[in-house]
Design brief:
Layout: H1 2-35, H2 40-49, H3 54-64, H4 69-79, H5 82-89, H6 91-94, H7 101-106, H8 110-118, H9 127-155, H10 165-181, H11 186-202, H12 208-237
């Protein structure tokens, strides 16, 4: 027990920035779910079982329109494809997690990944329990915030028209943040161009999946060419 308490105390301060971001975003999610007719139980269940941030906002659309399982599957895979790379990069850190490993894999969101990847536990603190509590705390923040949002939606009466735009706003903020933090804007420009071309060809109702497929294909090709050019340059230098 003492080992777990030490790990919790070490993990908690690192998750405070995540709490400040998660609590407001998850409250918005809870309010949105409530506005679509889904109560606290469904909201909590989605947050506990899905726990996928932006994909949960997209899932609201899946719940309120004619269900298309293939579209939902592809859309979710595209949105969260980055988690494949997260998982690969965490193989070494999680290899000795034992019985905690399945939960650590399940709870590996963007924010948890950034902390676990960049922070090591203090001396004398168990690695696996340190990472477990980081994961658990962030998971709890999201679930609690979504419940608060759902309850607020029941208590506070206001016009929720346009609340769906929170998902668009979320992606815009992420895009701007990535643009500012990276000097190389090639990937962002490719994303914009592929989206515009797909919109023109397929229209507003069907451009998203073709755009995402095109983005992944073009990025894969350009990345391969960049690696080949770098390899040739290194050989020339040698």
């Amino acid at each position: 027990m003492e080992e777990k308490i030490k790990a919790l105390k070490a993990a908690f301060p690192l998750t405070i920035p995540v709490f400040t971001g998660f609590i407001f975003l998850s409250i918005a999610y809870g309010i949105l779910m409530n506005s679509k007719g889904y109560g606290v139980g469904w909201t909590l269940l989605m947050s506990l079982v899905v726990y996928a941030g932006s994909a949960q906002f997209v899932a609201v659309t899946f719940l309120t329109t004619a269900f298309n399982p293939i579209y939902a599957l592809l859309m979710t895979l595209m949105i969260n494809a980055r988690h494949l790379f997260y998982g690969i990069s965490m193989l070494d850190k999680y290899k000795d997690a034992g019985k905690l490993k399945p939960y650590l894999i399940f709870g590996l969101c963007d924010e948890t990944f950034s902390i676990v990847c960049s922070k090591e536990p203090p001396e004398g603190v168990s690695d696996k329990w340190f990472r477990f509590f980081i994961t658990l705390l962030n998971y709890t923040y999201w679930a609690v915030g979504s419940v608060i949002g759902s309850l607020l939606g029941n208590v506070v009466t206001f016009n929720t028209k346009g609340l769906d735009f929170v998902l668009t706003a979320l992606f815009v903020v992420i895009f701007v943040g990535q643009w500012k933090s990276n000097k190389d804007h090639k990937a962002a420009i490719i994303g914009i161009l592929c989206s515009v071309v797909s919109l023109v060809i397929f229209g507003p109702g069907g451009f998203i999946i073709p755009a995402m497929i095109a983005i992944i294909a073009v990025l894969s090709i350009t990345q391969k060419r960049s690696e080949e050019e770098q390899s040739l340059t290194e050989e020339g230098v040698q």
